[in-house]
Amino acid sequence: MFIKSSITLTLSLILFSGLQTTSFAQNPEKVTIEVDLAKSKGPLKPIWAWFGYDEPNYTYMKDGKKLLSEISQMNKVPVYVRAHSLLVTGDGTAALKWGSTNAYTEDANGKPVYDWTIVDKIFDTYIERGMHPIAQIGFMPEALSSKPQPYRHFWKPGDNYNDIYTGWAYPPNDYKKWAELIFQWVKHSVARYGQKEVESWYWELWNEPNIGYWKGTVEEYIKLYDYTADAVKRALPTAKMGGPGTTGPSWDKAQAFLQTFLEHVTKGKNYVTGKTGSPIDFITFHAKGAPKVVEGHVQMNMGTQLRDIDKGFETVASFPTLKKLPIIIGESDPEGCAACSEDLHPQNAYRNGTMYSSYTAASFARKFDLAENRGVNLLGAVTWAFEFEDQAWFRGFRDLATNGVDKPVLNVFRMYGMMEGNRAEVKQNLAYDYKKVRDESVRGAADINALASKNARSAAVMVWNYHDDNVPSGDVEVEVKIAGLPSQRIQMQHYRIDNQNSNAYEAWKKMGSPKAPTPAQIAQLEKAGQLQLLTSPEWINPKNGLANIQMSLPRQGVSLLKFSW
After folding, report:
1. CATH number of the domain at 31-39+422-564, please?
2. Distance CA 391, CA 342 (A)
3. What is the CATH number of domain 45-418?
4. Confidence (pTM)
5. Widest pairwise Cα distance in the chain
6. What per-residue confidence (pLDDT) applies to 429?
7. What is the CA radius of gyration of the chain?
8. Which residues form the Glycosyl hydrolases family 39 N-terminal catalytic domain (predicted)?
9. pLDDT at res. 29
10. The pLDDT of residue 4 is above 60
11. What does the domain layout of the chain look like in residue ranges?
């Protein structure tokens, strides 16, 4: 729904685009990007094939199942999915920033009652699609909460965000009962899905325990971790256990929590065994950017997100025994609140259009460089965006689809899904490398750059034209010089995301932004939301393995050149 504040922001953007100003650098006349497919930078890990969301009960609803099917189909590797509230008490009714499964209750005598019906319904939906869960262990069942009331919240956009932190956020009143719950959950999962399947999962304790999601102390979280890890490993010794899922480590308090946790698992006294350390198979933390409205337009801050990531990598790398453990950035996004809609939060007006897609292309590429620089093992970066059932069309949530229609950002993940093999060299003599984006964000010239991959029978080059300031600008002529192609006949496909291609939002606006599109309009929007070719596929004949590709790339546009032989 395109309501008043969004209209004001858009009008401001249109008016602002006509002003002559020196605040924003003009586009260069031409940019040359050099790619050498013969120079490998190691495996291109599919760090993009990880997704998550607050509301677990959306998983098996109409649009949730449709979107999960699409996400699974666009990747040749298994997709991992992380959701909150898998142990929260309730009847399974879905709501913003709320979910429940009723997995644990107690009878009149205080005896545990386990009911895995809704948890199974969630995980069945993933596994039927070839996906795997990041089984987030949380939050606290009402019967186990040390401060259960109030328990259920009824948050909606515009309310105080702190209102969500109710009885589910507190430590248990009985750590042994909590541990038995986790033990039973893992045992049940093995019985239902098989040991091999459950061994592929990542069991993670809690979410952002350094802020309101955890109403206990750091030491109480550590105690909970020891009891949880012990229970998981007793049920399945080969299970993968990790945490702590803190907020961005560039914030001192978050970094201190992460540091304290890692010190405990390496040399602290275990609350359960009395021995030194705790089991840990992977490490998690989060990283977010910080958009704002500046002079009537949205200004992103990719540097803030990259500094979070880099500080987390630096912290992990400082522990020699942990440095090579897999790292999962459990939420990795342009900002923090997926359910905070654009109509009430104008800084989130990037979400429906191509700014979200170009930001995603550029930021994911830099995560590889940051991990390589710190010498750590980045396994995945979870995009905390899914869908919101029964909401206004294009309301401006941080989601991948609206009412079953894909948004431009989902097409970046379709592009990434076509990249496989080894990461190839892209020469860094352009306006930005990862260090400059990390330290300065993208405030001067546009970030026009690329990520490339190659395997035995194909190669791909993703090219983007990104800027933090969402101000209209002319197209840029880009020449992509590619070396290392086989000297034979090759098919090239050129995919594009911009205002004319792979963009259901622009199609919806051209319809007049209908609040209730007709079935025919919905079909048209669904088609517009798919990844589209800019031109028909063509055959090229590289000479000496060289090819020069010319393109005109709009601001916030993304192209994927796919070569097959």
Report:
1. 2.60.40.1500
2. 13
3. 3.20.20.80
4. 0.94
5. 80
6. 81
7. 24
8. 32-528
9. 77
10. no
11. 31-39+422-564, 45-418
